[in-house]
Amino acid sequence: MRPVRLELNGFAGFRAPTVVDFTDADYFALVGPTGSGKSTVLDALTFALYGSAYRWGRSNAIAYALAPTSNRCTVSLTFDVASQRYQVAREVRRVGQQIQQKTVSLVKFADPTAVVTDADGPQPDVLAGEIKELNAAIEQLLGLSFDDFCQCVVLPQGDFARFLSANARDRQQILLKLLGAAHYEGIGKRAGAQAAEAAKEIEVLTDQLSRHADATPQAEADAQARLSALGQLAATVDQLVPRVAEAHSRASDAHARVATLRTELARLTPLRAPDGIGELQRRAVEAQTAAHTARDAADAAAQTLADATKAAQSGPQRAVLNIARDRYTEKAGLVGRRDAVIAAAQRARQELAQSEERLRALADAVTEARRTAEETRGRRDRVQQAYAALQRRQQMLAPVQAPHGASDLTSRAAALARQADAAATQLAAARDRHNQAASALTAAGDGSRLTEAREVLDQLLDVTRSLTDATSELDDAVEAVAQADSAVTGAQVRLDAATAALEEARTLAGAAQLRPQLQVGHACPVCEQSVTILPPPLSDPALAAAQAARDAAVREHRDLLSQHQAATTTVAAKQRAADTLTQRRTLLDERLGTLLPDRPADTERDCDADRAHLDERAAARDQLVAAEQQARAAAQEAEAAHTSATAAVATLQREIDRTRSDLHTQLGALAELDPPAVDTHDVTSAWSDLEAWAQAQRSTVENDLSAAQAEAATCHQAHQDATATLEAAEQAHATAHSVHTTAVQQRAAADHAQSTLTDRLSELQTLLDQAPPTDALPGLLEECDRLEAAVETATAEASQTREALKAAEAEQQQWQARTATAWSELTAARDAVAALKPPSLDTDDLAAAWASLAAWATRAADDRQADTLRAQADAHTAHSEAEQLLGQLQGLLRDHDLDPQDLGDGPGRAAQAPRVVAVAAERARGQVEMIQRSLADAAAIQDKIDSARTQQQVAAELARLMRSNKFPQWLADSALDTLVAGASQSLRRLSGDRFDLSHHKGEFYVIDHSDADSQRSVRTLSGGETFQASLSLALALSDQLAGMGGATKLESIFLDEGFGTLDPDSLEMVADTLENLAQGERMVGVITHVTGLAERVPVRFQVHRDPHTSVVTREGT
Prior knowledge:
Elements: E1 2-9, E2 18-21, E3 27-31, H1 38-50, E4 72-81, E5 84-95, E6 98-108, E7 125-128, H2 131-142, H3 146-152, E8 154-155, H4 157-165, H5 168-178, H6 183-210, H7 217-268, H8 277-314, H9 318-397, H10 409-443, H11 447-514, H12 543-595, H13 607-669, H14 683-768, H15 777-832, H16 846-895, H17 913-961, H18 967-990, E9 995-1000, E10 1003-1008, E11 1014-1017, H19 1023-1044, E12 1052-1056, H20 1064-1078, E13 1083-1088, H21 1091-1094, E14 1099-1105, E15 1110-1116
Parallel strand pairs: 3-13, 3-14, 8-12, 12-13
Antiparallel strand pairs: 1-2, 1-4, 4-5, 5-6, 6-7, 9-10, 10-11, 14-15
Helix pairs in contact: 3-19, 4-5, 4-19, 6-17, 7-16, 7-17, 8-15, 9-14, 10-13, 11-12, 11-13, 15-16, 18-19, 19-20
């Protein structure tokens, strides 16, 4: 993965839009003071890919992405993988109190050189558009998880510096952490916790098992017997209950008949005819006759009122006559006001014409005054603009002055150029001499191979001695196995004999127990044949002694077998150790042959000859190393001198460029003044010419300014006078316009009054054309009075007759209501005994109907009295039978331990017996099921106890294996071998073939080829050398993690490491190391605030912070 372009907006300290362009930046540095935001750039790069950053502590942390005062941030990264270009973008927003990712995207460009999407070109392929898809897509594309990326690309350099000097225990913890193997410690802890939980579970389950102690097979059998007895009781109860119910039913029927007869007798006894029925009929007939007479008189009075009303409606109407009289009066008043209204309208027209003439004259005066004011204002503005232009020209010419020190720039530049050329010639010669010495040293071979050959030779001696000891131990172990095998064979023979003797003793013991039970004529329980003669009794077969002998033989066989297995295991372990040592000896011998290709053939096992050969080659190489170091020192001195001279030339050239840039800037500022043409190559002459021209221009401008100022004052006074005249004319015109408006309003009011009067007179004339004449109005009003009086008299008479009719009808209704009430009482009395079938009644004669009903009631009451006595005797017989059967049922319940009180106290309590028996049976059935469930639960709990015990044993064993001195130690040791091998290759390249890395017995060493391949502890390294060693370890782990994760080729690496504590020599070595690293195929990025280191990096991204935001500026190519 190689980044191309990083865009930030609102991310952490970068509140403003920021672009970091990595194009052609194969080796760059992020430079700036502490806190400026250098590390934030790497945080943004990591966040764009994985949604978090290494420094934030968690892979799902996003809160640090948003600046404290921002509500939204966006991060976009364009990067290359292999030959394809991709772009990933994320957006974070503040929603209430929450900070959330809102939109994400991952696209693949069709054009591998594109950095933005072209709307007219081919569109990119969208690989992910959802948050849950993006991280998986990035991991699949890069082949690295978030943690792996932070260790492979953004290296945790500080951990490796500690890794070099840590003790064995701390180094194991650091290595496991960097390898991501810290979860093994968690596995061990979880296994220990699981073992403890399993032990606790066993304790809990054992307590639960004790709660089922009462659940036994005998308890189950007793419960089943109780359930069977209750079943038989239920059948008996089912036969008795219907008989009890039938007896109770007969008693209830008899009681019901008694109650019914008594009820009927109670209804018949009070049935008698009421008093005064005849008088009631006579008064009702008289009231009906009086009501008919009053109704005829009311109808005659109503007809008289209708005739009078019709006559009044057809005669003259009073309201019409009153309206006509009012209209005649209004017309006379309007005719009297007509002449005065017409005169007022004529006066208003004359005043309006006069005001219009004066208003036109004043408007012409205002127009003339406004024209004069505009002319004077235009002259004043033109003069002021000319004066301002002269002032601006004077201000532009004032700052024209040559910068200090511009006169001797050319001579100084020539002198420094000569010094730089001389330094370059000396540097080329020194480099040639160093290259010759380095070539000779390279031809002599790699010094690390000699160092490694010494180590391999030492290891070969150790392995050979260890193999000799292991072979001897293996022979002893094989002999011990043979002896144990012989002992096991003998123990097996003795065990077989003891087992046969025990079986024979058991057979004889069984026969001895059966013989006393045999009887002549019965079958033998063993052979099933008839016994004819009884055999004699057998003596005691000594079964216990045979059993004891066999148990002893079993224990002996088991002990010897365990010894045999232990001896066999020992042989296998010794054999594996011997095979491992043999294989390692072969590998070391082959490696020594590879490292020493000119090794004599007859020294295959002569280690002294090999060591002498190594010493001879090392001495020759030491001489070449010394020559190369001397040439390198001379080349470095020449390079320092050349660098100093080149820097001085560059510094002076920057000064010339600044002076020329100032000249161009000044000419650009004076462009509108048309300055003279100057030669920008000779900055001194150009500045002199420009200063002379500016001085002449300043004198001319000063003279022009005085004349322009006097003319401006004259124009300003003329404009003030014209403005005063215009204001006076406009005031007079406004007054006249107000008078004219008043005249218009007065004329409109007068015209409206005249029009209104004329229209009303016309309207009244039209209305009065249909009205009676004025002199006929009094006679018509008198006729209205006569007709209205006749209507009032007829109305009073009609009201009196209606009141008399109401009184007669009320009297009739009262007697009719009393008669109806009497008939209702008769009907109600008969309806009350309707179920007893009373006789039909005469509806025309109320008294006769009552007499017939009363006679029937007397006869029916006598019959009901006799039937009541017979029904009471039947009820007593049935009740006695029911009580006898109920006593038998209660006795059965007591016999089965059931309480008869559960039946209740009511007459229907026998019907509750099946329910009581069913409840008892259900309880017995529940007891059976409870015992069965308890037995099943006890078996299940026992299974759980066995399973938990197995789990506890496995977890305890796993916790033991996960201790730091078991599996994690083996993993760390294996990883360390691979890590050191890869780190040694990187260290050799980064140190210019000076160092190799090795480790022995928990300590790290470097092989210094510049010091006769001496072996030095890493604790003795300088700051720069420590950086080289730790960076080599970091690169090795990066390659290992990337290989394990299936990552694509790693094309970039970023070092977020502080270098401020290093001394100048160590800092120089760090700079050389980084330059060597940058010569590879990776993009190398460094974060530093050390100026000396940053100046040696070809591309620098300056990061600084203003009060609002962090800013990134690219420098270099």
